Amino acid sequence: MNFMKILVTGGAGFIGSRISKLLINQQHQVTVVDNLSHGSKDSVDPRAAFYQIDLLDQSKLERVMPGHEAVIHMASFIEVGESVKKPVEFSENNIVGTVKLLEAMKNSGVKKIIFSSSACVYGKVQKNPISETDPLGEQENPYGLTKVSMEQFCQLYHNLFGFDVTILRYFNPYGPGELHNPETHAIPNFINSALNKTPIPLYWKGEQIRDFIYIDDLTNAHILPLNQSGLHIYNVGTQTGSKVIDVVRKIFTILGYEVEIEDKGERKGDVSKLVASSQKITAELGWTAQVGLDEGLEKTIAFFHSRLSST
């Protein structure tokens, strides 16, 4: 692989910081751009160049963009419930921010982008496992709609300006280092509740089925497309569905004790089952998930337990 100079937006976040570290370990030169609204400067690898810049500030982006060969675009607001309360802020940050990033790239002669998308673009799912050729369904919340728009702007810049675009549709990432505030993802909330011996909040009695992907597997999927040209869209998942209640039981088994479960009833906007077909990324890039759910949960529990022990 050729060593490249790569700009990572959102590189102070859970996934972006891990991608930056992996790139640097593979001898790439990394610039992190993050407004620190959700990320932490402490998460940024000290070997990376860091700029606290908001994507809405196109002129600042254009000052740091020249000389880079690729952008990995991770920066976005992600909290679904917040998007329902703040659709304007989500649209401005996610959609307008992405367009300004693409414009800054175009004006700087940088024409390769790997975009962090989401399985939520499939909306109300008609069948499982989901493949990349399945239609994008009706959206349940502004967050999903912003991801659809961000994808389409990336594709538009491929069509209009010859950008090389790879879109990665994540399923349900989890793993050590996930420290959102507030935390809205299931697995870190389950683990923290169990470690603190407080009730685990559970919607739908945990009967929903999800495709949980470990952070290291997800991170690796961003490195493989760096030498791709053209337009590519890939699902990134394990192709294995797990009931949420079974994840809770696995956590109990690893810890060796159980805590109370708080029945939160139904939640509007949830799909009952979401499982990836990842055959395309396996066939074209040789990527497959390596870390099973049991091993991933053990590593994630160890991380949160060590944090609890050090406080």
Structural account:
With 311 residues, this protein is an alpha/beta fold. It is built from ten helices and 14 strands. Helix content is 40%, strand content 18%.
Summarize the structure.
With 311 residues, this protein is α/β, with parallel strands linked by helices. Helices cover 40% and strands 18% of the residues. It has helices at residues 14-25, 58-64, 80-85, 87-108, 142-161, 186-195, 215-223, 244-255, 279-285, 293-310; strands spanning 5-9, 29-33, 49-51, 70-73, 112-118, 164-170, 172-174, 200-202, 209-210, 212-214, 231-236, 242-243, 261-263, 273-274.
Q: What is the fold's blueprint, element by element?
A:
Elements: E1 5-9, H1 14-25, E2 29-33, E3 49-51, H2 58-64, E4 70-73, H3 80-85, H4 87-108, E5 112-118, H5 142-161, E6 164-170, E7 172-174, H6 186-195, E8 200-202, E9 209-210, E10 212-214, H7 215-223, E11 231-236, E12 242-243, H8 244-255, E13 261-263, E14 273-274, H9 279-285, H10 293-310
Parallel strand pairs: 1-2, 1-4, 2-3, 4-5, 5-6, 6-11, 7-10, 8-13, 9-14
Antiparallel strand pairs: 9-12
Helix pairs in contact: 1-7, 2-4, 4-5, 6-8, 6-10, 8-10
- Counting DSSP E segments of at least 2 residues, the number of strands comes to 14
Helical segment count = 10
Distance between the termini: 42 Å
Q: Give the low-pLDDT segments.
A: none
Class per helix and strand makeup: alpha/beta
| Helical residue percent band | 25-40%
Q: Quick one: biggest sheet?
A: 7 strands, parallel
% residues in beta strands: 15-25%
Assembly annotation: single chain
| Strand and helix order | EHEEHEHHEHEEHEEEHEEHEEHH
Q: Using the alpha-carbon principal axes, give the shape.
A: globular
